[in-house]
Structure formats: C-alpha cells, structure tokens
Amino acid sequence: MVITDLDGTLLNHHDYSVQNALPAINKLRERGIPVIFNTSKTFSESVSLQKQLDIQAPFIVENGSCVYLPKAHYPEMSSVETISSRDQFWEIILGKSHSAISEVLKTINTSASSYQLLSDCSVDEASILTGLTTKQAEQAISREFSEPLIWKQGDEALKVFKKQLKEHNLNTLQGGRFLHVLGTCDKGLATSKLKDTITTDDTLIKTIILGDSANDAAMLDVADISVMVNSPSNRSLQQIVTADINTKQQAPDGWTEGIDAALNKIKELI
Q1: pLDDT tens profile 188-244
Q2: CA dist 6 to 2, 23, 176, 195, 209, Å?
Q3: Does 3.30.980.20 match the CATH number of domain 102-182?
C-alpha cells in the first residue's frame, strides 16, 4: 500500500495543486493499491480530499493522532472493543484531545505571546498564513487532536517550551509551516497501528511511504520503500532520514516520479 503525506508531498507546497499526480493515483487504483493519507491535516480536510480524488481507503490525521478505516471496507472491525465509530468510519484514537492540549498550554510557564496558535486565527488570517481557500482554512482550524503554532522566540526558549510539554506527556513535530503540539504519537506509530489492525494471517503488506518534512521521518523509518519528495521542507528531514528514493521534482510531479520509481523497486522485495 502507498502511504503518503499531503502538503509538500502529494500536494504542491505553495499552491496545493494535485492535478499532475492524478494519472499515478489512477494507475495505483487499477493495480488495487490503496493510497492512504498520513497527514497533519484534520479529519474534515482529509475526507474532502478523498472525495475530490475518488479515494476510498483508511487515512491518518493530525500527525498520527487518529486512524480512520472506512466501515464499508472493514466491517469486521465492529467487534473490536478499542475501536469507536464516527460517521462512515472506524476510529482509533492514539493522541490527546485538542481541549487537553489547550489546558496544558494554559498551565505551563511559557507566555502565549511566544507563539501564534492556528486555532486562535480567524478564517481570513489562517488563509493568509497557509494559502488555503476560506473553506479549507476553516477545516484546518478545526483541530481535534493537535495544536499547530508558529513559534516567535529563539531556539533556547523553544527548548524550554518543549521540555515543559514533555512533562505533561506532549510532543512537538515540525511540519512544513507549523510546529505541531500533540500527544505521544507520530506518523510512524500510527502507520504501524494501521498495519497491525488490517493485517491477517494470509496477507503480506509492503509499504511505499512518501514524505517531505521532519514530521514525516517516523513513518519513512517504517517503510519498505521510503520516498523523499523534493520540497522546501527537505533540509530538516534530510538531517534525520536517508530515503531509498529522492525525487528531483516537487509535488505533485515529484509524487508521480516517486511512485514510478518505487513501483519498479518494490518488485525486488516480492
């Protein structure tokens, strides 16, 4: 299966274009290979993009905080006690709630003037920060398991901030635009949880995993074939991960380039 980050990986970092990746998505669909989002985006953002791209598959939101599986494809999950129901999906929560994170931010000894929270932005302000449309920005603000922010102070103050969060069992992950505050989860843990949940005795799952920024490192580490898509966020990721494939082009063309290279390489593993 293909597991992919969205912003900067499948979607262009600057304008979120995806058009040039559609032929590769169709190729994967024809081969019965699911495309699974593993993103910092929210539930509503991910569902909207799935509908736009005609994708029906599991997906992971808010940097590994929650895994969703479509009920139509996984009806047997109804008997699993640790899985809850949400709309047309089964829901596996791995992170902390947005309200719990907000309470910690109010409690720790770091001034709120040190950062700008995405959830405090108006829709117009969020659109300016992200380049999203009004509707997309509204969906992005509606966090359930994480709090994206823009840090305004220096590195030393940031180290103190992160230490304070860890004392409350919260982590941070650096994305392409925001520093994300979340529970003790990440995209790699969520990927492993998804595989464990859907794997049966008679299945062998191989993964092609694509990312572009530091918050993708954990999921690239658990890939059978890892692909780093060229983007402005590569520098921080390159310091953490050595990918099997590095694309020359940026998304969405770089996503197609990575998929083509990975499909050729995956044959060696089967």
Answers
A1: 999 999 999 998 877 788 999 999 999 999 999 999 999 999 999 999 999 999 999
A2: 12, 17, 11, 19, 11
A3: yes
Active-site residue set: 5
User: Hey, what amino acid is at 186?
Assistant: D
**Collapsed DSSP state (helix, strand, coil) of residue 98:** helix
N-term to C-term CA, the chain: 13
Domains in the chain: boundaries: 2-94+186-269, 102-182
User: What tokens does 55 get?
Assistant: 């994708």
Q: Give pLDDT, residue 116.
A: 96
For CA atoms 52, 211, 118, 105, the dihedral sign is: positive
pLDDT, tens only, 21-73: 999 999 999 999 999 999 999 999 999 999 999 999 999 999 999 999 999 99
CATH number belonging to domain 2-94+186-269: 3.40.50.1000
Beta carbons of 5 and 209 less than 8 angstroms apart: no
Question: Whose CA is closest to 263, among 249, 248, 244?
Answer: 244
The three-state secondary structure class of 81 is coil
Give the chain's largest Cα–Cα span: 54
Residue 235, H or E segment: helix 234-238
Residue 156: both structure tokens together: 């030393």
pTM reported for the whole predicted model: 0.94
CA separation, residue 218 to residues 187, 240, 269 (Å): 6, 9, 21
